[in-house]
Write a structure and sequence with these properties.
This protein is α/β, with parallel strands linked by helices and about 325 residues long. Helices cover about 25% and strands about 25% of the residues. It is built from eleven helices and 17 strands. The structure holds zinc ion (2 copies). The site of one zinc ion (ZN) has 6 residues, from helix 4.
Amino acid sequence: MKAAIILQPKQIEVQELPLPEPAPGEVLVRVMASGICGTDVHIFQGEYLGSYPIIPGHEFAGVIEQAGRAVTRFKVGDRVAVEPNLPCDNCVNCLNNRQNFCLNWQAVGVTRPGGMAQYVCVPEKAVFDIGELPFEQGAFMEPLSCVLHGLERLDLKVAARVLLLGAGPIGLLLLQGLRLRGAAELVVVDKNPDRASLAQSLGADRSLTNLDEIERDAFDAVVDATGAVAVMSRTLDFTRPGGKILLFGVPPAGQIMSVEAFPIFHKGLTILSSYTSLRNSYQALGLLQSEGIRVDGLISHRLPLEELQRGIESIEKGREPVYKVMILPNG
Ligand SMILES: [Zn+2]
Ligand SMILES: [Zn+2]
């Protein structure tokens, strides 16, 4: 099979590898669609958890090609998506329902081979039946799970007034999720006009390209989906007294976010973050299947495995309006 391997930071090679053999309790998945995520960009740049060499890819869907011994829920031909996080279920965090902070955490496409290959072996417990859902939509199960975890953390009040900063692929999922969770008014800001107008077409009441046009002290909830510390630090300005802030975007490690401390106290603000997901895959699939959340318009590129590096670099540079880049390892 063909697999794209990050040999070391900034170096990707497509190699011919032997077909992996599923261990007991594992299935072999033929990968049909595999989304590039910001995490893959970080692994490519050498800034993240991964060890090298690694086959990346943790947002993917495909078909069961072979079921290992002791697999009970799946058979050859089933259409599936994969939840990449593999908690041990046996550490102090797992035992306290904080599997996203598992002390022995493993993840498909980060610590073990991922979906940027024609085939990959994954444990049965990480596999979800997608039924008739198109593979490209199934590949959104993982990012959408993370978004749903963030929305659960935020616990929005019905009819809230919400400001969302950032309309990349994750921002556009958050936008739709915030509406489902009861936002009555949704204002979106993205400095890229194409992204701002896509936000409008996906249901924003107002979309703007300049933060300085936003009303201060006005929103029940402010959600950052940029991960840019300069933007994150502005969230406090726009939140009304008693309001909540969700810092969802992933900032670069090592950067300091400076904010004036007094308004946090004086406005009684609640500042939240969100880390990966916590058993949100079923919810994510339910929303994709019911079209409660739409993702087809979020795919901007479809590329073969050989062009993974180009796909990662186009996200890195952010010149053109890039949304989700899908790699199609089996054409
Ligand atoms: Zn991801
Ligand atoms: Zn654990």
